[in-house]
Amino acid sequence: MNIREITDQDFDGLMKLYTQLHANPVPVRTPQLEALWQRILNDPDHHIIVAEADGMLASSCVCVIIPNLTRDQRPYALIENVVTDVCHRRQGLATACLNYAREIARAAHCYKMMLLTGAKDDDTLHFYTRAGYNRHDKTGFIQWL
After folding, report:
1. Which of 94, 97, 93, 135 is nearest to 114 (CA)?
2. What residue numbers bound the domain in which 50 lies?
3. What CATH number is attached to the domain comprising 42?
4. Which of 40, 41, 101, 126 is deepest in the core (most CB within 10 A)?
5. Domain-located, residue 138
C-alpha cells in the first residue's frame, strides 16, 4: 500500500475510482475538464489523497484547507469524496487516506476537520467514528444547488 497525493498522471485512475462514488460516469476529457483538473492540481489548499494497491488507485479522499478569520485565524479542513474500490474495501486503505489528510490538516495548523456523509448504513457510520470523527458536536445541513 502506498498513500500519497495525486499527480497529473493519475487522472484516469481517479476517474475510474470515482465511478463507484454516487455512480459517477467517467467524464469526457474536454478542455474545460482539463482546465479544472489543472486548477485542482495547482491549488495548494486542495489535496487529493490516494491509496495504491495492486497497481491501481484503490482508495481516495479530498482534503481542502479553508482559510478562516475566527479561532485565532486558524484554518479548518473539509473532507470529501471518500471512496474505496469495492474489491479493496476493509483493508484499511480509506483509513490510511483519512490519516494522511489529518496530517495535512495538522501541518496547516487547522483547528478542526469536517466530514459529511450521505451514508445511513451502520458500517459506514462506524467506520467514520473509528477514524476519529463524531456526529455529536455539530449538525450538518446541505442545500443542493
Report:
1. 135
2. 2-130
3. 3.40.630.30
4. 101
5. no
Give the count of alpha carbons within 13 A of 4, CB side only. Answer: 11
Over its C-alpha atoms, the chain yields an Rg (Å, rounded) of 15
pLDDT digits (tens, 9 = 90+) for 36-76: 999 999 999 999 999 999 899 999 999 999 999 999 999 99
Q: Supply the DSSP symbol for 105.
A: H
Residue 136 domain-assigned (yes or no): no
Asked whether residue 86 is domain-assigned, the answer is yes
Mean pLDDT per segment of 10 residues, for the chain of length 145 residues?
95 95 88 97 98 95 98 97 95 97 98 92 91 90 87
The β-bridge relationship of strands 113-115 and 76-84 is parallel
Residue 142 placed within a domain:
no
Helices (H), the chain: 11-18, 31-42, 93-107, 122-130
- Find cell 495525486 and name the residue: 6
